[in-house]
Write a structure and sequence with these properties.
With 271 residues, the protein is α+β, with helices and mostly antiparallel strands. It has three domains: 97 residues, Helix Hairpins, CATH 1.10.287.1260; 49 residues, SH3 type barrels; 81 residues, 2-Layer Sandwich (Alpha-Beta Plaits), CATH 3.30.70. 51% of the residues lie in helices and 18% in strands.
Length: 271
Amino acid sequence: MEKYLDQGLLLIMQYAPKLILAIVILIIGLWIINKVTDLLTSVLKKANVDETLIPFLGSLSSWVLKILLFISVASMIGIATTSFVAVLGAAGLAIGLALQGSLSNFAGGVLLLIFKPYKIGDLIESQGQLGTVKEIQIFNTILTTFQNKTIILPNSVVSSNLITNVTANGTIRVDLTVGVAYDCDLDEAKKVLMEVMNNNPKVLQDPAPAVGVSALADSSVNILMMPWCNCDDYWDVFFSIQEEAKKALDKNNISIPFPQRDVHLFEHKSN
């Protein structure tokens, strides 16, 4: 019995200082990690990093530092960490290969949140889809179309392809084409269409609206109307200008021709 007690005391005397030191380092290390995480969160907020990304980056840095701390503490008390690190690396590689698609979406989401090519509420076009950004998640971007459909775009695809941000500049030009007859007074038609745009309260005067001949088509002279408006007023201007242009042209006896074709008949004389 005394032999076992002596061996127990010897083990305690041998490992107790290491264990106490490891516990102290663990407590101090956790306190430092919390402070570092809080500092990182504060820096990210001051740098105007997206609110969605800040908690994630804070949690990620905290877990990485804690894992390194636990490995260091384990090695201090005599636990072999080489095999543990090898297993952890192999597990990380296996998880990375299994979640390759998700990790690429995650990387794309981080890039989108950092560089901010668009924000919530912007009207964007990507992958042939046009819609308002409802939510920017870590893995996906959620759009709402004008038909109130929800479109989910993977961030890896969005971040690596063309993005058209329609509303980024706050104003937008509405391009409308009106065809008038070839025999009409072209200057009068342009004047009438310009008045239509100037009289619309949602059309901006800076930049000023403009009109111009865009094409000499088969059945009409096509005039391009180019009013500017705030992004929120796009559809109101789009519909109202076309309706007002039709009424104004009718009032001034300027016809909008329909497609027509001249057919020439030749009499065939047989011998």
